[in-house]
Structures are given as C-alpha cells and as structure tokens.
Amino acid sequence: MSPPLAPPGWSRWLVPPAALSVHLAIGQAYAWSVFKPPLEAALHLDGTQSALPFQLAIVMLGLSAAFGGTLVERKGPRWAMTVALVCFSSGFLISALGAWTEQYWLIVLGYGFVGGIGLGIGYISPVSTLIKWFPDRPGMATGIAIMGFGGGALIASPWSAQMLESFGADPTGIALAFLVHGLSYAVFMALGVFLVRVPRPADRAAAAGGPSAAEGVRVSARSAVRTPQFWCLWIVLCTNVTAGIGILEKAAPMITDFFADSSGPVSASAAAGFVALLSAANMAGRIGWSSTSDLIGRKNIYRVYLGVGALMYLTIALFGDSAKPLFVVCALVILSFYGGGFATIPAYLKDLFGTYQVGAIHGRLLTAWSTAGVLGPLIVNWIADRQEEAGRHGSSLYGLSFAIMIGLLVVGFVANEFVRPVHPRHHLPAPPKEAADVQRQQSA
Amino acid sequence: MSSDSSPPRGTRNGLIAFAWVWVGAPLGYGLYELVRKATQLFTG
Q1: How many CB pairs under 8 A join A and B?
Q2: CB-based contact A200:A6 (threshold 8 Å)
Q3: Would you give the end-to-end CA distance of chain B in angstroms?
Q4: How many whole angstroms separate alpha carbon A284 and alpha carbon A270?
Q5: Confidence class for position B2, pLDDT limits 50, 70, 90
Q6: Contact A33/A275 with Cβ under 8 angstroms?
Q7: Alpha carbon A372 to chain centroid distance?
Q8: Is A8 exposed, middle or buried (0-12, 13-18, 19+ CB in 10 A)?
Q9: Which parts of A311-382 are beta strand (E)?
Q10: What was the pLDDT predicted at A210?
Q11: A68: burial class by Cβ within 10 Å (0-12, 13-18, 19+)?
C-alpha cells in the first residue's frame, strides 16, 4: 500500500476528521474499567486479573509506537490506519470468542496484545500527516487528534455500560458487547482509512505560506534519539504526565479525603462529578493549550505547563483543604496541562526535528508516557497507603506525594530550559526532488 | 485511491460536512453524558 497522495484541490479539513475517527475509537482503552466488574463476576477473576488486558494493551501501545514508528513513516498513514483498524477490531472479536468460551486468556491476548498493537499504531498514524497539512498550525492540528484519544473514553464509557445492561453481564452478554464493539469500531475507523491523504509538496508549501525554516530541518528518528533535545523532551513529557496522573489516579478519594472533616463533606456522586470534570479539563487542555502553543511557542507553553503546574500543586498542598472551589480549580488546571502536554509534544518535535520522521520520533518518545503510567500511580498510591498506616488522614495523606510532584515538575521545567535547536550535524540533506519542488513553488 | 477516482472539488464541501458529523455526533453524545455527570459535583 503506497502513501495516498492528495489529488489537486483536496481540502486539508478532511484530514482532522480522519485522524479523529481513529483516535476517538482507540481512546476506548481508558473505558476498560466498565468491563471489569462484569468480567470479575462472570469469569471469577480478581481485580488484578481483570486489569491485565488494559495493562498489556498500554504496554503494547508504547512498544508498537516505539518500534513501529519508522514503518508507519515509510508505509504512510493509510497503511497505519488500516493496521490499527484490523488490530483494534480483531482484538474485540478475539475477546468476544474468549468471553463466549469463558477462556480468559483469549481476552488478554485479544484486547491486550492484538488490540494494544492497534492502539500504538493508531495513536501515531495521523500525527506526521496532520503536521504536514498544517505547518502553520501544527499545535492545533495534533491537538484535535489527541483530544480525540481523551474523548474516546467519554463515548465508550456510557455506551459500553448501556450495552452491558441490555445484553446482560453474563459471559454471553459480555461476548455480544465485545462483538458489537469490534464491528462498530471497524466501521467508524474506516472513515479515517478512506479520507486520509498525504499532501503534495506544493500543498505543504502553500499551507506554510512558503517554504518555512522547519521544512529545511530533516532529522531521522535514528539520529533524533542520539540528541540531548530528544531526552530533554522525554523528561519533560514524563514529568508532566506523572504530575497529571498524580491527580487522576486518586481523584475521587482525594477530594473526599481533603474535605472529610469539613462542614460540607463530598458525597460519592459529587466525587464522580469531580472526576468527570477532570476529564473535561483534560480534553479542553489538549485542543486549547496545544492551539495556544502555535501563538506563544512550544518552549513557552511547556514553561506554563510545568511552572504553573508546580504552583498549582503547591497551592493545593498549602491551602487546598480550606476551600473546595480552590481545590477544584487547581486540579482542573493541572489536568488541562496534562492534556496539553500530550497534545503539544508532536508540534515541539516538529519544531526541533522537522516533519521528515516526526511520527517515528513521536512513537519513540511515547515510552515516557509508559514510564509515567507506572511512576505516577506508584508514587501516589504507595505514599497514601504508608501515610494511612502511619495513622494520618484527610489531606495529610497526600502532602508528601504533592511535594514529589512539585519536585518532578521542577525537574521537567529545567529540562525544558535545556532544549536548544538541534545541531546541524544531525540534519539530513533535503532530497533533490523536494528541493526542486520547493524551488518551483517559490518561483511560481 | 488514485487521484483520477477522486470526487470533483465542488462535492467536497458535502464530504467535509459528512466527515465532521461522523466524528462530531458520537463526541457530542460523550460530552452530553460528561456534562450530566459533572453537574453532580454541584448538586450531589
């Protein structure tokens, strides 16, 4: 399958919905928890076992994005979206068979392993193409797509719950739900496969308002991982994501603990509302902050994410238990920075390494996400458990965790300060054909 | 798909609208459910 070149006059506004159709689908991964209680009851599993498919899927996401990125760049977005569609949908179909036959290992293999490959390839599939179509607004373009990954869970969570209610939470009902998910997502993602197009060099130059400086930078993925800039951004992403997960992981018990001794304690349904509001902030941050980065620059926006994020954590730690609105606003800002950090990183990579293999470089950088996914919950849960054992309660359960988060954000802030333009010795020369195209465009 | 089989430019506005509705409708449903749940913070 060759990369699908856009015909003359193809609108670039067809590419974001193509990307969204993939990201909104694979974002379902964060709604896996809906399947956990019925699976535990129907197949006699404990909580750790029922989390396995999700955990394996996230590991496979990181691995396939890191190792499949170069292939995605070579084969193009349509190939990548097709692989994502086949793997993600097959994962559900294999899981349906697993639930039907009550063979749990098939669900782990299907959803976790096969579906996880679909997550990784699908996540990076539109990034490079979007940046090439929107060289003037790369932050906004990737923000739209990566917002979709956050939005996927918002759709899947109520949808899956309703389906399980209709079909029943026994093995047959779960199998039917998996089957409908697999088939529906295949149809939904097909739009992306059908619509995605790679811009011609003339389209790219026209969208950029002329050949920009970034067009001249070409750094391969292999070279990029040897630069200090890549590892600085790895630290930036890892610390920013860890800080966000620090809130996300224990949001409901955290707000309950903070105001347990106040005159107005937080009810379970209000805590659920708080979690939903955090999801909204996460999504809004992805599109809002990432678009803002097109105006104020990538380095500046990460200064805000990391610097203001640390101040927000400090405010919660010092005054969070004094007023609910203050606690909620600070948490929302932190979560919006968490989303913004994810969505802005592809544009930051494009600024530093050019568009040549930005998807592959992004894939390798996502290992920072996998690391943060382990680090964040570990810090918050382990420390809260130890504090509880020590007889502490309320907001004092989280004081040490917050101090660590502030420290991590400061480390990220410093790493961001070290980011400089990539040394020309890492640059590849422009291919003769592209150089000629750009020259032709300039003279036209 | 080759460039020859692509629709003429005039029909693309319809395709753009269709594509955005395709992804916008489920996202709208998700956001509606989210808002319903989020209001519990103030009413619950």
Answers
A1: 92
A2: yes
A3: 53
A4: 21
A5: very low
A6: no
A7: 12
A8: exposed
A9: none
A10: 59
A11: buried
Tokens 């811009």 correspond to what residue? Answer: A199
The Cα of B16 is separated from the nearest Cα of chain A by a number of Å equal to 6
Closest chain B CA to residue A153: B30
Mention every residue, 6+ apart, whose C-beta is less than 8 A from residue A124: A65, A68, A69, A72, A80, A359, A360, A362, A363, A366
CATH of A12-199, one of 1.20.1250.20, 2.10.270.10, 3.40.50.720, 3.40.930.10: 1.20.1250.20
- CB A259, CB A324: distance < 8 Å: yes
The CA distance from A407 to A142, in Å, is 29
Domain ranges of chain A: 12-199, 219-426
CATH superfamily label, A219-426: MFS general substrate transporter like domains (1.20.1250.20)
Which backbone phi and psi does A285 adopt, to 5 degrees?
Answer: -65, -35
| pLDDT score at A434 | 52
What is the dihedral sign for C-alpha A163, A165, A166, A170? positive
Residue of A1, A14, A147, A154 best to disrupt the B interface, most CBs of B under 10 A: A154
Q: Please give the C-alpha separations between residue A151 and each of A192, A251, A303, A377, in angstroms, as whole numbers.
A: 16, 18, 26, 22
B6, B9, B38 ranked by CB distance to A276: nearest: B38
- A192 contacts in B (CB within 8 Å)? none
Please check whether the two domains, A12-199 and A219-426, share a CATH topology: yes
pLDDT tens by residue, chain A, 444 residues: 667 888 888 899 999 999 999 999 999 998 898 898 999 999 999 877 888 898 889 889 989 998 998 899 899 999 999 999 999 999 999 999 999 999 999 999 999 999 999 999 999 999 989 998 999 999 999 999 999 998 898 899 899 999 999 999 899 999 999 999 999 999 999 999 999 999 987 777 777 665 554 456 889 999 999 999 999 999 999 999 999 887 887 788 888 888 888 877 888 888 888 888 898 899 999 999 999 999 999 999 999 999 999 999 999 999 888 888 899 999 999 999 999 999 999 999 999 999 889 999 999 999 998 888 878 877 877 888 888 888 888 888 888 889 999 999 999 999 999 999 999 888 888 766 555 554 444 443
- Could you say which of A155, A269, A273 has the minimum Cβ distance to residue B26? A155
Q: Does B25 touch chain A (CB under 8 A)?
A: no
CA distance A278 to chain B (A): 9
Chain position carrying tokens 């390798």: A364
Q: Which residue of A159, A188, A276 is in closest CB contact with B37?
A: A276
